[in-house]
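Table S2 (text version). Query chain:
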Amino acid sequence: MKLFYCDEFVLPLPPGHRFPMDKYRLLRERLQASGVFQEDDFLTPPAATFAELTRAHAPDYVLRVERGELTKQEIRVIGFPWSLEMVERSKRSSGATLAACRTALKDGASANLAGGTHHAFYDRGEGYCVFNDAAIAARTLVAESILERVLIVDCDVHQGNGTASILSNEAHIFTFSIHGANNFPFRKETSDLDIELADGTGDIAYEQALARGLRQSFAINSPQLVIYLAGADPFEDDKLGKLKLTKAGLKHRDEIVFEYCRARRVPIAIAMAGGYARNIYDTVEIHANTVITARGIYG
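Corresponding structure-token output:
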């Protein structure tokens, strides 16, 4: 199972910035030390090209990101200060999800050890998301006539509003988001299927809702590939989560998604998405469990 990482492209964030950037490096190190993967399973992805980025984003927006011409308000909404490193990392993270998709089509499963930047819209970014990697990857594979049907399963605790907006009129790509009803973004977009959960939802109710959503999504879309945003932020001790899933519950969530896809011979590309636990090592453990669980199921 191949894992694409871009933690070597570090964003120069100001002291006290709330985004846990170190989790990506710590995740790769944990997986390398796990004994589950070989060193050649870890690959640096290519950067997404301008043509690939503009499958999902306005050319003018992409150019303004590249040239550092975003307004102060646009930068504030994204949440990262602009830098050349921010541009390169955003392109690499999008390239990683696309590379994971291409690899999953051959091997059954692959993962981007970052990604899941689902709050990026067609012409703007927000919520620590510059480019929408899942939308870029799905649109590119459809445009290249590699696939006719893609399903995006978004299990981040926050709705994939940018993904829903970009793909709102896309007949070939089905968007399913299961998320907290009373959480960011406070103005939701409309996915093909949204399941909203109350604050405090725990393992059992979450798993039941997820299974229902998978059944509905597969029945409508009959996907040839699933892109899975495996957010760690439904965790009970996540600072931004509001749900009450345990680590065991999150691991079972992953098993439900993987087993559902494997039983139907549908390859899966995984992106990490959010995770803001009070202890960063909890987030790293949850993300690592996702990847190791996939390795155990898909080989």
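Notes on Table S2: The chain has a mean pLDDT of 97. Residues 58 and 258 are 33 Å apart (CA to CA).
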